[in-house]
Automatic annotation (TrEMBL):
Short name of one Pfam family: DUF5983
Protein name: DUF5983 domain-containing protein
Boundaries of every DUF5983 domain copy: 13-105
InterPro entries, per database record: DUF5983
Amino acid sequence: MQFDPNTAIVKAVELTTAHLTKPDMQLLQSLADQYAASSVPPTVMAHLYGAVIAIGALTVEAIKAAGCSSQLGAILDGCLRDGEVMYLAFDSTGPFVEGLEEFDW
């Protein structure tokens, strides 16, 4: 099988962690620790430079119920509403997106 790199296999969005507040990043880290210990949603996975969120109604609602900022809530709602984003990654070297608020922490 030959792989065409122009064909998306998984639809994902990557953003810089600068689009997160520091408390949001701490919340995602805490949720990732819980997920690693139990594999129960919300499905958040930590990595060396940020976090990856598996987008789904249960995960989005759980992150919002855990107290994320309105900014992160809006990003999550946008990913869920479009129905095409399977994973949302935040990475310290990820791209900045014009129109999204930036936080310096």
